[in-house]
């Protein structure tokens, strides 16, 4: 098995790409749609997101590496626990947009993390889909 693990989720959102991208990249509003996550921009190209309920959780530190409104934001995870790359793509579709969330990560805990990924991946994908569906509900309200 390789050094990285992968997960992708996609949903249809009943809003145009401009509205979807604006909400996806409104970091303080992540708490409204992203599962157990609060986020904030801490620099021109830096975002920090905390997932969990304090004190049980983790800080995900990211650098924005590509910014192409309203279709793409790419992040590099540079924190102690989460490392790798993430991307959110927004594609115009009839009746709204298709939102694709992909992650290419180095799992924590080395070989043990990679060995556990087949069990963790379905949960990660389910939570990503849940979050994206909630994003869609916010945009259709």
From TrEMBL:
Gene3D superfamilies according to UniProt: 3.30.530.20
Pfam families linked: Polyketide_cyc2 (PF10604)
SUPFAM superfamilies: Bet v1-like
Domain of life: Bacteria
Protein name per its UniProtKB record: Polyketide cyclase
């Amino acid at each position: 098995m390789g050094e990285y693990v992968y997960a992708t989720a996609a949903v249809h959102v009943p809003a145009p790409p401009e509205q979807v991208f604006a909400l996806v990249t409104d970091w303080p509003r992540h708490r409204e749609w992203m599962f157990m996550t609060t986020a904030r921009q801490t620099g021109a190209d830096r975002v920090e997101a905390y997932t969990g309920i304090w004190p049980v959780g983790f800080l995900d530190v990211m650098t924005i590496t590509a910014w192409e409104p309203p279709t793409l934001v790419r992040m590099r995870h540079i924190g102690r626990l989460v490392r790798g790359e993430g991307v959110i793509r927004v594609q115009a579709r009839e009746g709204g947009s298709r939102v694709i969330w992909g992650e290419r990560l180095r799992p924590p805990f080395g070989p043990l993390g990679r060995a556990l990924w087949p069990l963790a991946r379905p949960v990660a994908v389910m939570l990503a889909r849940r979050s994206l569906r909630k994003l869609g509900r916010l945009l259709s309200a």
